[in-house]
Amino acid sequence: MDQSSNDTTTSSESQGTPSLRTHSPETFVIDKTFADLGLKPAVLEGLTKRGFKHPTRIQAALIPVALSGKDVLGQAKTGTGKTAAFGLPLLQKLDPTAAFSALVLVPTRELAIQVAKELQELGAFAKVQTVAVYGGQPITKQQPLLAKGPPIVVGTPGRVMDLAERGILPFGDFRFAILDEVDRMLDIGFRDDIRKILGKLKKVPQTIFVSATISPDIEKLARSYMKDPEKIVTFEKSLTVAQVKQSYFAVERWDKKRLLLHLLKKEQPGLTVVFCRTKRAVDEVTMFLNKNKIDAHAMHGDMYQKKRDAVMGKLRGGDLSVLVASDLAARGLDVDDITHVVNYDMPEDPEVYIHRIGRTARAGREGVAWSFVAPDQGELLTNIEMLANIEIPTVGYDDFKPGPVPAEVAAMREHEAKRREDAQHSRNRNAGPEVPVVQSVDPNMFPDGIVPTALPGRRLGGRARTNRR
């Protein structure tokens, strides 16, 4: 790629440090086309069919490096086309007749389906087949697809290991290993699986790891699987999507359902995703909205895969208006038409907030993110603002009237107030009588010129331990 660009810097490799390229805030490189990146006509035809002309920053930076055969560690914000960034080089370099050439690992079932779908569409003219494998779907449905020897397999770690142990998915020929959402993939729950899978690959593959956020700890671990990788980082003025209009509502926990209903009816947003922290909250909020004539659908990990697929089908087809989801869906939703995100429950991890709001404002579109912040969650909001380097404004509605304090909350508050009052009375009793004081004639004899006229009302008792017998 063009090294003379003013928005690109490369760190010195003479000191043994890997190359690091960073780019300016704009999402697209408008002075380049995909043809400029060295892609062959069959791959370009797939891009043209989907209406793509200019690459995004991460695509313009990563594709040439991946085509050169180097390992890559890529970081870019959500919604900038990371799937195409690693997928297009695969479609360029793979032999359509070579079975099991590339393994793409993703953290969730939804993301496996989405990535496989996008690669299949991009590779339509290159005639490179892609198959998705994931838990929740019977192996008997996936086995016939793998029997055809697809060049690209996209899967979740658990199902990939299961298929390999059954002898259905051979590891002998994989030339490429891709980890999408690498921060989640290398989190505690996935590290052992990743080690086992990468350790079983017979050949030394070209590896490409991509994610929206990469901590130093995760980067160190990722590099242990890579050979002299080039790190590519694209960024904006803030970590969040520039096109997302963010605001928050200060609300008590028991008023959040009513506020959400008020918000949806008053603002009448387009396709909205409401994020809850727990599966139970997802079900409760969905039932509440349906009861109040809002077409809402739930999405979380306890749902059968068939039902989750049906909900995702409606979402992508534009047949639902509100999706209530756990954070499982934060990594698997890749739908361009999501206009609003509601953080019904504030996440403990600020980076989860970044992933959530990245579900809107896709591919340069504008989006809206609303957050419900309880009185004791100020620190969570501050942590998010510090990470994103922005100040999120508060908003409210004059016509929204908070509900009464629930009886159990009122009882708990009354109990806590009485406990504090009793504790104060106890401290007062133990303090003893107030010590009378007089103004000292010589203020230099005592601090502030105050001298006591009697001993303290309460003194320490007991005997000091000595060496005497």
Q: Briefly, what CATH class of the largest domain?
A: Alpha Beta
Question: What is the CATH T-level topology of the largest domain?
Answer: Rossmann fold
| Mean pLDDT figure | 83
The number of E-state strands comes to: 17
Q: Indicate the overall shape.
A: elongated
- Measured on Cα atoms, how large is the radius of gyration? 29 Å
Describe this structure in words.
The protein is α/β, with parallel strands linked by helices. The chain has two domains: 9-234, P-loop containing nucleotide triphosphate hydrolases (Rossmann fold), CATH 3.40.50; 244-388, P-loop containing nucleotide triphosphate hydrolases (Rossmann fold, 3-Layer(aba) Sandwich), CATH 3.40.50.300. The protein contains 15 helices and 17 strands. It has helices spanning 41-49, 57-67, 82-93, 109-122, 139-147, 157-165, 182-185, 191-200, 216-223, 256-267, 279-291, 305-317, 350-357, 378-388, 407-430, and strands at residues 9-10, 20-23, 72-75, 102-105, 130-133, 152-155, 176-180, 206-211, 230-234, 244-250, 271-275, 296-299, 322-325, 338-343, 367-373, 437-439, 450-452. The strands form three sheets. A nine-stranded mixed beta sheet has the order 1-2-9-3-8-7-4-6-5, with helices on both faces. A six-stranded parallel beta sheet has the order 10-15-14-11-13-12, with helices on both faces. It has a two-stranded antiparallel sheet with strand order 16-17. Helix 13 links the parallel strand 14 (338-343) and strand 15. The radius of gyration is 29 Å and the shape is elongated.
